[in-house]
Write a structure and sequence with these properties.
Oligomer: single chain
Number of helices: 10
Shape: elongated
Helix content: 40-55%
Radius of gyration: 26 Å
Structural class: mainly alpha
Low-confidence stretches: 156-180
Length: 185
């Protein structure tokens, strides 16, 4: 295994920490453990203090890497069901979900915001395909939203084609909450 990939493998990291704990329990010095496992002495001292606090080595177990998800599994299931109902069920004039509409839905229902890339990543991790949802929505009638929590309006105002083809002004872009670089003009 490549050394860099090995260092990113939680199981390998855990086995190295547990090996260090075993050596410490046998009375091997921190400097010797650090040399043997190719880690810093500070890491070995952290392992030692974890063993002193909780002797079974539970704190040395591998933890999930990366940032914590903002939506839990139940919320992701709820998001999936809302997406399956389609944008019309959310009182949106669009026929298919766009990433912007999904972001608005998440912000309105769960109170957390995602960037475009973050939202795509969430959908990918949750194995939700907007394309597959669009295909399924085309093959069935519009969902009835008379029961449950009710629709959330994500309505995006329709813009006449003649206006949409024009270059937007700075004032219009600013009203959308998009930062403009006025230093160049």
């Amino acid at each position: 295994m490549d050394a860099l990939l090995q260092k990113m493998d939680p199981a390998w990291l855990e086995s190295r920490r547990l090996e260090g704990a075993r050596l410490l329990e046998q009375g091997v010095g921190a400097a010797e453990v650090a040399r043997h496992l190719s880690v810093s002495r500070q890491a070995v001292y952290l392992w030692r203090s974890a063993l002193l606090v909780n002797g079974d080595g539970q704190q040395l177990k591998a933890k999930k890497l990366g940032r914590r998800e903002r939506l839990n599994a139940d919320q992701i299931d709820q998001l999936r069901s809302w997406l399956e109902q389609g944008p019309r069920a959310a009182e949106c004039e669009r026929e298919v979900w766009t990433i912007l509409l999904v972001r608005k839905l998440i912000a309105l229902r769960f109170g957390c915001t995602y960037s475009d890339a973050g939202c795509w990543g969430l959908l990918r991790r949750a194995q939700i395909s907007l394309k597959d949802i669009a295909v399924r929505l085309r093959s069935r009638p519009i969902a009835d939203t008379s029961e449950g929590e009710g629709p959330v309006s994500l309505a995006v105002p329709s813009v006449p084609r003649s206006v949409a083809m024009q270059v937007p002004s700075k004032h219009f872009i600013g009203s959308l909450g998009v930062a403009t670089n006025s230093a160049g003009k």
